[in-house]
Design goal:
It is a single chain. With about 280 residues, this protein is an alpha/beta fold. The chain has helices at about 10-15, 35, 55-60, 85-95, 110-120, 130-140, 145-150, 165-170, 185-200, 210-215, 260-280; strands spanning about 1-5, 20-25, 70-75, 100-105, 120-125, 140, 155, 160, 180-185, 200-205, 220, 230, 245, 260. It folds into two domains: about 1-130, Rossmann fold (3-Layer(aba) Sandwich), CATH 3.40.50; about 170-265, Rossmann fold (3-Layer(aba) Sandwich), CATH 3.40.50. A six-stranded mixed beta sheet has the order 4-3-5-7-8-6, sandwiched between helices. The protein has a six-stranded parallel beta sheet with strand order 11-10-9-12-13-14. The longest helix is centred in the C-terminal third of the chain and has 17 residues, at about 260-280.
Length: about 280
């Protein structure tokens, strides 16, 4: 027997997996259940949100390997459908013989989701916008980098939290001095402020919401003007600059002419995450 329902949040989707029959979550909130349910289906050309393709189920998630003891990892955010993190972590988990799968979870409120995630075998979570500040607040034992930023992008089952975004920024942005501009004022922007200050810059911030920009505690720019270094944490196009770290990626986004694109940044922070998740190298 199969029961298919449309959850309105990921906690409801997890409850479908607890049913004594095959529970399947439809729509964007239940997409991850399609890889975990004992009875599932896919389509070469999906006709509904969250429906996987055969490549998703058999190549990306390798559903034939998933069993009752398979550990869960994943990326949580809203939106999250665009995330390429599963393409980085799942091949490495298979290569290393780890009985685990890495999924996408659309999440609006991290606290109830985290409880359900751990209850269902969750071991580690990558956290993306807009949940990085909440991830820090949830952690029982944030590390020094997460505390410095007031944001975390990695949560472990034991309550520890880390900020591998900061480690990636420190690796990818060259040391220097003078002005730097941060676009945005969320968790990634908080991390960029700390990274730029450690690298020798004097960062300013521009954001569409003035009160959020002021909360970063640095000078607020009147407009998104050019600077020697620009870190873009928004969906907007950054101004041209000698060095741009653009956290965006996707087929419609052109990489910066000088600097680092979002996929390079994603891989850099994922290396540190995978080490935290498994103790091995990505």
């Amino acid at each position: 027997m199969k029961i298919a329902a449309t959850p309105t949040d990921p906690v409801q989707a997890f409850r479908l997996l607890d049913l004594p029959t095959a529970g399947l979550g439809m729509g964007p909130w239940g997409g991850f259940t399609r890889a975990l349910a004992p009875l599932t289906y896919c389509a070469a050309e999906p006709v509904a949100p969250g429906m996987p393709t055969p490549a998703d189920l058999f190549d990306l998630y390798d559903v034939r390997r998933i069993g009752p003891r398979t550990a869960l990892y994943g990326v949580a955010g809203d939106p999250v459908e665009h995330s390429r993190s599963p393409q980085l972590h799942n091949p490495a988990l298979r290569r290393d013989g780890v009985d685990a799968v890495y999924l996408r979870f659309r999440v609006a409120d991290l606290a109830p989701f985290w409880e359900a995630f751990v209850k269902h075998g969750g071991r580690g979570l990558s956290v993306t916008a807009p949940l990085k500040e909440q991830a820090f607040q949830l952690a029982r034992a944030p590390d020094a980098d997460a505390r410095a930023c007031g944001a975390a992008n990695t949560l472990l089952q034991d309550g520890r939290a880390f900020n591998t975004d900061l480690q990636a920024m420190l690796e990818l942005v060259p040391r220097g001095s003078g002005d730097a501009l941060i676009l945005g004022a969320g968790g990634a922007a908080r991390t960029a402020r700390v990274a730029l200050q450690r690298l020798g810059y004097t960062p300013r911030v521009w954001a569409r919401r003035l009160e959020q920009a002021v909360a970063l505690g640095i000078e607020v720019a009147a407009q998104p003007e050019a600077a020697p270094v620009v870190v873009n944490t928004t969906p907007l196009d950054p101004p041209a600059a000698p060095f741009v770290l653009d956290l965006r990626y996707g087929p419609s986004i052109d990489p910066p002419r000088a600097g680092v694109d979002g996929l390079t940044f994603l891989r850099a922070q994922a290396r540190h995450q995978y080490r935290l998740f498994t103790g091995r190298e990505l």
